[in-house]
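User: Here's a chain of 309 residues. Predict its fold as tokens.
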Amino acid sequence: MRGVIWWLILAAAVGCETEATGPAPAWLDDVEAPAPLWLSETGLYASMAERSPARGVHAYTPPRPLWSDGAAKERLLFLPPETFIDAAPAAWRFPIGTVIAKSFGFRKIEGRGDSVAIETRILFQRRDGWRYVLYHWNQQGTEARRVGDADGSRWAEVPLRLEDEVGNAFEYTLPGELDCEACHDTQPDVPVIGISPLNFDPALVDQGLIRPPPAPAAFPARSPAEAKAMDWLVGNCVHCHHGKPRGDNASFSLLPIDLVASTVGVPTASSASGDGIRVVPGDAAGSALYEAVVRARLPDYPGDFKPMP
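Assistant: Prediction complete.
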């Protein structure tokens, strides 16, 4: 999707709580309730048209965001009253009733092509575990409908046609539930990616939503370029590649503390990738990571590497 110009869908202050017109509906307060049919019924928004968060719902931005083909994204966090994310050593636990939402902004091919939100993905925790739900916005950007049923059955992918600002059409697919699990369920403990010990918005700490205040992530970088690479890998790769026994993707670690030892001069060893050396010193173009991140994303790529991320 190179060359596509994306439009920002929400100018939200990082970590800023927005005033609401009234109390949140029951869904946010009911830890047993299934996801409602309409996004407006979740209580996440004070205004659907403006996509402004309701009282008690917090906008946040991770310092190392996941790249999503240039999509503009907004993120919202709801924690039940008087609760917080437990960041004690070896904990990092989210309270029952946590709701995390992420909206993606693209331009639709139908209508006038105005910039609107296309989808909102929600990850929420109930007593029996974490669940996923997806909402698809209408063309006017005033409401979003749940994709799939409320009976717990899995929903499938939904293909869409989008266009850039000069009218070039391209395909985009709303993810199925299996797609959500493919990334989030590779986490060793909780399926939350954008709020983690290595990647959390300090504003959430300032608001008392993460306690005790965790120390800022310190990476063992030997140069500014290496620090930048570690930042990018934390935002895009370590939720799968963390070295824990959670599937083939996690078979080796790209965590900052392991990065050099697990990549420099090390051959690939996964059935999901082609053959090569992960990082060849002094030869970026000859490195398997470069192949997977850059070349494998090109149209008509003929190689064996799966595009990352």
